[in-house]
Amino acid sequence: MDALIAILPGDGIGPEVTHEGVRVLNAIAEQYGHRFERREALIGGAALDALDIPAPEATLDLAREADAVLLGAVGGPKWNDVPGDKRPERGLLNLRAAMNTFANVRPVVPHEALRGASPIKEELLVGVDMIVVRELTGGIYFGEKQRSADSATDVCTYTREEIVRVLRIAGQLAQQRKGRVTSVDKSNVLETSRLWQSVAREFFAEEFPELEIEHLLVDAAAMHLLSRPRDFDVIVTENMFGDILTDEASMLAGSMGMLPSASLNAGKKGLYEPIHGSAPDIAGQGIANPCGCILSVAMLLRHSLSLEAEAAAVEAAVFGALDQGYRTADIAIAGAPSVTTREMGDAIAAGLPAGD
Ligand code: IPM
Ligand code: MG
Question: Mind listing the domains of the chain with CATH numbers?
Fold first, then answer.
């Protein structure tokens, strides 16, 4: 198949991990006879430095034109004093808004070989397999902001329509899985959450009566994620709660560096990025974990290009490398040797099916 894939490496470890992701894309194209045209563009701090804007129009145009976008990470201490509307993170938010990727799908499936890398007791991790669906283009991230010397405001708004469309993605996923949805809100305090919960009750009863629906307050959900992670199937929640809960959930998988994500719109286009940030503390050292990015490539192949066999081959190659004992520093056993980003990429590429 022919596809246009936009590559946005971004900042910090972003370029290092996307480099490995692109190698995997190339290998897949070669082995399965696809033509992936790759076009690179600037985002985040890299764009700010070059063009004084964190999400240049050319990048947004490319993202809208492409079949899918692979992104590394944005941000870093270098841009800490930049005004809010120019921050690298704002570039990412503008990109998400421009692509209308309202549903951020973050699977959390701890790999057996990495159970020891998680701070959570191993017996609690057995059987954990969940997907967090995070609303991505609304809520407090996108509300009006105000700032004076001594006060600041961030407005949180949700509409029924914004809630329904992300709940629908969660419902469809749960239908293909164990049939359970946990909707997370803070309805004991927030008006937006009271709307969220009432819409969720009504919507699931009407459109997905066969699903088992649970409603949890976000503080309790944060606790249950660690005390009974196995019970969750699909978690659906608003933007900021999803941001926080997925960093927490990543520790079940051993490291932030392991988790991929797919940000989806109403069609097939998507923005694929590891959930980790730019990790300025280790940037440039070649030791970042590329697994989250490479697993994001697998999600890209599956969701945007409908290449299921290719996606499964990439996942199998990542898990194969882990089974063989390859570990970047973030998932290494204390005191044991670890491999570089490049070596991890090599081990994964070596595990892909060979071409004819
Ligand atoms: C994430 C990140 C972003 C977010 C930042 C970099 C803006 O933390 O994708 O989880 O908060 O959405
Ligand atoms: Mg985050």
Answer: 1-105+256-356 (3.40.718.10), 119-253 (3.40.718.10)
